[in-house]
Amino acid sequence: MELIVKGMTCGHCEAAVQRAVKRVAPKAEVIIERARARVTVSGSDDAKGVESAIRAEGYEVAAIE
Amino acid sequence: MELIVKGMTCGHCEAAVQRAVKRVAPKAEVIIERARARVTVSGSDDAKGVESAIRAEGYEVAAIE
Fold first, then answer.
1. Where are the beta strands (DSSP E) in B1-65?
2. Farthest CA pair distance, chain B
3. B55 pLDDT band (50/70/90 cuts)?
C-alpha cells in the first residue's frame, strides 16, 4: 500500500514513522520518500493498523492508495 | 549561553539536540525554543564543546551569544 503522510519534516520523523509501521507490521518492507510525503508498505495488508500507527505517532495520513 | 541553531524542524530534532548537549554537559539545563531557533544552556561554560556536539548531530550553529 502507499500512504500520503504529512508532517514528516526530517530524518528523525522518517525513523519514527518507520518504527511505528514496523510495530504493527513487523515483517513489512517500509520505504519512505519524505520529499514526496509518501510511505510505501509492502508485505502487509493491514491498512487500518498502519494508518492508526502513523496517526498515533503524530502524523497526518492524507490518503491511502 | 544562548545558541542560534538552524535546522531543528520537529520535536525529534529538539530531543536530538537536547541529548547532544547533555552528552558534553550532563549537568546543564537545556531549553530549546524551536520556533526561534534558540538553544539556551545554563550550567556549562563549555561553548566549544556544546557547539561541536550540536554540529556533530547535523545542525548548524549560526551564532553563540
1. 2-6, 29-33, 38-42, 60-64
2. 27
3. very high
The pTM of this model reads 0.84
The mean per-residue pLDDT over the stretch A35-60 comes to 97
User: pLDDT at position B6, please?
Assistant: 97
CA atoms within 13 A on the CB side of B65: 7
B residues 6-65 closer than 8 Å to A (CB): 9-10, 12-13, 15-16
Chain A: closest CA distance from residue B19 (Å)? 14
- Residue A40 backbone zone (phi > 0: left; psi -120 to 50: alpha; other: beta): beta
Beta strands in chain A (DSSP E): 2-6, 29-33, 38-42, 60-64
DSSP B40-55: EEES---HHHHHHHHH
